[in-house]
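Aim 2 progress update. The chain analyzed this quarter is reproduced below.
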Amino acid sequence: MNQVKIAVVGVGALGQHHARILSTMPDVQLVGVVDSREQQGREIAAKHGTQWFASTAQILPLVEGVIIAVPTIYHQDVGLPFVEAGIPVLMEKPLANSLEAARALQRMAAFRRSILQVGHVERFNPAFELLQKKIDRPLYIRAQRVSPYTFRSMDIGVVHDLMIHDIDLVLALTGESIASVDAFGAVAFGPHEDMAVARLRTSSGIIADITASRMSPVADRTIQVFSASGCVTADLNQRTVSCWQPVAPLAANPGLVHDVIAATPDPLTLKNEVFTKWITNETLQAPTVDALTAELSDFVRCIKTNSRPRVSGDDAVKALEVADRVLAGMAKWSWQDKVPTIAKAA
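Predicted structure tokens:
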């Protein structure tokens, strides 16, 4: 089997997991890791049977693909030489720290006709994949992604850190452009927003409400989709999917409920029957597939077949465009100044 030669640039909290998984893939040769911290780089390299390199210039001639997991502010500087050389890149999300930088990376990838994949890993979450199969056209989407403060990704706010995942999922589910954005946020530790809520309206009128916070005492990642055929909720942490649908007679004739009410003297009976007799529930456990492994497998497949990744650079630019619109129109409150302000559009 011909092995694809891949390196990982940045082996911190997330990059070290990329290195670990790649080192176990039979069709991959992990040719090295790059990290400016020599001790960290050498430790991860030794752990996974590869070499540490001090700079990307040293590794560039040796690879057929690269994973870039450095802080977001360095994405363009680190990624551009690989993209210019036509080397396939899997860039951790967000694609860049600014829309201008993201577009520059995508334009170069298009010019070089090279693969640019972006690590919106929730697209590979088996619970999200199952949710996609269970819904028809969405009418309303509600997503929540909250967690305790980790003091990582301090170079970006919660919109680029967490909310952008769900922005990408909304765009994938609807396949539509965003017509309007309303948003509110709060700063706790700063300097960027640590909590944000946004309402997105698509070109056809689909509404999506998204909440993201890294100042929550508990972690929760859920997405709920309402359509004409019912409601589907995916718990992206627990990997469960719950489907709620009206029974066939009620779906065919919504007015039937008035006949049922007229024929039932006890309202409590009706209340107890709503989610047993009239609306059915099916709860499914999604497969125990590791999303990061699936994402890396997709990257390797794209390199071998020169095909488009599930989450392309173009997809990532679209998500970043929406994220920037959220930030541009955000009314923001801070514990430090206690005065809400409206962010200025860039």
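The domain at 123-289+325-334 is CATH 3.30.360.10 (Dihydrodipicolinate Reductase; domain 2). The longest helix spans residues 158-174. These observations will guide the mutagenesis experiments scheduled for the next reporting period.
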